[in-house]
Specification:
Layout: H1 4-61, H2 70-94, H3 98-126, H4 130-194, H5 200-204, E1 218-219, E2 233-234, H6 235-246, H7 252-266, E3 268-275, E4 284-289, H8 293-301, H9 311-318, E5 322-324, E6 333-341, E7 344-353, H10 361-383
Antiparallel strand pairs: 1-2, 3-4, 3-7, 5-6, 6-7
Helix pairs in contact: 1-2, 1-4, 2-3, 3-4, 4-6, 4-10, 6-7, 6-10
Amino acid sequence: MRSRAARLTATAAALMALGAAGYLFFTIEQDIAFRRETLRSFDRRAREVASALADMRAAEQAYVAAGQGTDFWMPKVAALLADVAPRVDALRPSAATNEARSALMEAAALVTEFGNIDRRARDYLRSGQTLMAGDVVFSEGGETTAAAVRQVESARLAENRGFDLAEARLGRRQAAVMGGAAGFSVLVLLALAVAAPKPREEARGGDEAPAEAAGELMLREPAARPTPAGGPIPLLKAAAELCTDFGRLTDSRDLTRLLSRVATVMDASGVVVWLGDHPGADLRPVFAHGYSDQALARMTATAIPRAADNAVAAAYRSETLQVVLSRPGASNGAVVAPLLTPEGCIGAFTAELLAGRETSEAVQAIASLFAAQLTGVLAASVQRAESPATQRVVSR
């Protein structure tokens, strides 16, 4: 990142990520607007059908009302029936939910049944059986049209619920897109800041500092492991690819695979995601990578209370990043990043680091970035009060 070309490339990549995110955000917003307009059209037509059904019921009841004549009201009912039936059928293809389509099918069947009831009422009137006609009109005819109105109203409400769910899903997608782009851009800025070139007078004064001391954002394998054939892995590129893949998660298996890559990018011997079933609840591990079955069993045996005296609980309480320093020959260091939502902290992301990298500001920033990505993926399950702690802890 010291060369001018590398800095320009990183800047261009950040601008391209922001541009692509903006385009995707706009496209999703257009989809939401189209769905909203479609819902408005469906809602208006459903209300019109319900109103026509009510008019049809009132017109039929006028058959036996004092002072009314069937010569006017029978053609009126026939005209309304001929108008309502195709309008109910036309609503069904425009419904977006199966619940609405089922309700409209039931409404269409009730309209057909009303036509049969109306013919019986007319036959009674023509034969002079006014009382029988009145019984059919007010009981069977009234109940049938009322049931049809309820089915149309059920379809309308189902469409509104379906739109709300779709809008929420698309909104989360927008947040993931913009969050990924913003995270990548912050990472680029961090890389440019940490890897800024030395002033000329400083460069002339003495020996060059080692690459890692100067802030070189390159991930090297620890000395205990062989260096891969491809050489050092660019930390910035690997983290950017992970941010992009976080936005494409579909199930827990994908998240498990991503945690393996997160451990590689951070040069961590193990990573764990801790969650409570609601903000402030006790923490349990829900995903892990890099630990033996015995270690996982010890972790899952008991929950971590909010008041516990360890780095995970401290990050959970304070909502700030915690650093555990390594002890040579005794234990590795670690960083603990809180998972923060507008409602509060829902958990923590821990990474056990090799070669004393827990003190690196770049590594700490990467941990916070991955914690933000994990929050976007896992927050919805906590908000639905579905305890992720019941999931099986996954290791490699």
